[in-house]
Amino acid sequence: MARFTLPRDLYHGKGSLETLKTLKGKKAIICVGGGSMKRFGFLDRAENYLKEAGMEVKIFEGIESDPSVDTVMRGADEMLKFEPDWIVAIGGGSPIDAAKAMWIKYEYPECTFEDMCKVFGIPELRHKAKFVAVSSTSGTATEVTAFSIITDYNKGIKYPIADFEITPDIAIVDPDLAETMPKKLVAHTGMDALTHAIEAYVSTANCDYTDPLAIHAIEMIQKDLVDSYNGDMAARDRMHNAQCLAGMAFSNALLGIVHSMAHKTGAIFQDYGAHIIHGAANAMYLPKVIAFNAKNETAKKRYGVIADYMHLGGNSDDEKVALLIKFCRDMNDKLNIPHCIKNYGADSYPTEQGFVPENVFLERLPEIAKNAIADACTGSNPRQPSQEEMEKLLKCCYYDTEVDF
Length: 405
Ligand SMILES: NC(=O)c1ccc[n+]([C@@H]2O[C@H](COP(=O)([O-])OP(=O)(O)OC[C@H]3O[C@@H](n4cnc5c(N)ncnc54)[C@H](O)[C@@H]3O)[C@@H](O)[C@H]2O)c1
Ligand SMILES: [Zn+2]
Prior knowledge:
CATH class of the largest domain: Mainly Alpha
Distance between the termini: 34 Å
Strand content: 5-15%
Bound molecules: nicotinamide-adenine-dinucleotide, zinc ion
């Protein structure tokens, strides 16, 4: 038996933020990030709509990018004091993910972070509050997914919390919020969405319910991401839907090792001055993982189907896989994202010598590979890598060398 779960309601289109006016309850807490939502007036609007609905509103601000366990615990404390019956998370993947984890701790104060990380082990929520997610970036689709990614900065590792219990009750996909994204954010979140759709399509948990969502998302992203990056707001609006469709697919079909590797490399080089932004990590690793997974016949055929839907050409599955890899690499060039960790420079732009020195990478490689294999996303990847293969794959992602194993 398989399960397919999405939010009970999804409101989309320009102005759909107004839906907040229709919520029924007494108290709402708004969870929000570092300032962009306030700066562009969306936080005020959300607060006013909730007040119009007759609710007392509290704001929990300042949730950082790649949120930490500490932030989750602080937010949960605020919720325990305020006792909201609605949690309204607004912003990118970071504040929404943090709010999801706060929600668990609010409902079950005795639950530790380790408890939360047990895959599909979250107890029943919604005894205290329901959850609304309003996304302002076009990538993570956390407004519709069963996932939350929290970083343990003591270990330098991102942990996925995965359970349909944390799939929001209401998702609001209002493209007005995405229109204020700076170019770099469009690029990163867009490549995150492309990776979600491709990984979901070849995942071992794919099914007839997830395939059409993944394929349609891929077609839309192919058509709209570069234009959105270059400032076409109609394309930007469509990308907001495309990333959400990709999220519906991967929340139910799960992901693969591009994400395992991104989760385990994102924060591990923090001591060298920067972290590898999630979408940029995916963009760099995706072509390598396609080459690795294509050694599995079923995955190769599925990549071929993707290439066909994208009209990339090719007469055999091998040719189609090569064309799909080329497409992904061309996207990185068009979006100004490097091809490998070695060239990952300041502000995530390509540079001759990036911030991760070779000796540091090689020293940490066995540990990163071990952690990537243990990541929750590895189980549904079409090809299971050994420790040696994962190390070789990560080396290809560092040096931008060809995957021939
Ligand atoms: N839950 C999931 O299913 C899932 C899936 C993929 C990734 N993730 C996680 O999500 C996080 C990344 O989320 P993200 O990529 O959405 O970025 P983010 O939420 O970290 O935001 C990045 C920056 O963009 C700013 N910002 C957000 N929206 C904006 C807008 N509309 N205009 C201007 N600035 C804006 C934020 O203030 C922040 O400074 C990572 O922790 C990643 O691991 C979660
Ligand atoms: Zn992702």
